[in-house]
Design brief:
This protein is mostly helical. It is built from nine helices and two strands; from the N terminus they run ααββααααααα. It has one domain. It is 71% helix and 2% strand.
């Protein structure tokens, strides 16, 4: 069992290194763009909001509020976007007997998680240094929300990628779907800001629970939050299981080609 686990780990690690080289190259900043690109987006959005919004929104500083939301959105988007092209960009590798479809997906998910996490940490540290944020009130809750977000987003990415392997139209629909999903994501609004009758329907979608947890950990008692710590994990598990079933079916489609 340990030998098998070690072998799978080596395969995933090799695929991660290959992905870094093919996506970012060997020159210039190289793989540092894995963290640098999200950082540019996060600080650009913070700067824009700082100009068009008051320093505080509902008693919360704009900068950490926007950072926690947009960093979460970037991880979701990157997981889904880079996951859809994972197999088409690496189909030649599948001719190697030891490399499986799941190895390719796991490598990309680990890479995106690392990049998103580092950009989140660096952004927050910078905000603390310039006096726009304080140390999180509950660091464990921030961790739990971030991991829950990753598991749920990975499940979504796996299902969407499996469908995209069979139906080309999915790649056209997904960008629109991500934009339509924004008002229901919790990225730019808190659940407490909504009327109670609207909030009940709003919280059916698992994504706001993860961001509410992150903000509850960051702001502590200064902000009213609504979340179920197990709800996004449950739906993440359901989506991952469904994605595995869909991938097994899509694999037959790839083998046929």
């Amino acid at each position: 069992m340990f030998a098998s686990a070690a072998e799978h780990t080596r395969i995933v690690a090799a695929l991660i290194l290959r992905e870094i080289i093919t996506r970012f190259g060997r020159r210039g900043l190289g793989f540092l763009w894995l963290v640098g690109e999200p950082l540019l987006f996060i600080f650009a959005i913070i700067l824009i909001w700082s100009f068009i919004k008051a320093p505080y929104q509902h008693g919360l500083r704009v900068a950490p509020f926007v950072m926690t939301g947009y960093a979460s959105l970037l991880m979701l988007r990157h997981l889904i976007s880079y996951s859809m092209g994972a197999i088409t960009g690496n189909v030649g590798l599948l001719y190697h007997q030891k490399i499986k479809i799941l190895h390719v997906f796991i490598a990309r998910y680990v890479l995106e998680f690392f990049g998103s996490t580092m950009s989140f940490v660096i952004s927050y540290v910078v905000l603390m240094v310039i006096g726009q944020a304080t140390f999180p009130h509950d660091l464990l809750l921030v961790y739990w929300g971030w991991i829950s977000l990753f598991i749920f987003a990975s499940g979504m990415a796996l299902v969407i990628s499996a469908l995209a392997m069979e139906f080309e139209v999915i790649e056209r629909i997904v960008p629109v779907m991500l934009y339509v999903m924004l008002p229901f994501s919790g990225v730019f609004a808190m659940a407490a800001w909504l009327p109670e009758n609207v909030r009940d329907y709003y919280m059916i979608f698992p994504l706001p629970h993860t961001i509410e947890m992150i903000r509850a950990g960051v702001f502590g008692e200064f902000v009213e939050t609504y979340y179920d710590p197990l709800y996004p994990l449950f739906w993440g598990g359901v989506l991952i299981a469904l994605g595995l079933v869909l991938i097994s079916r899509a694999k037959e489609h790839i083998d046929a080609e």
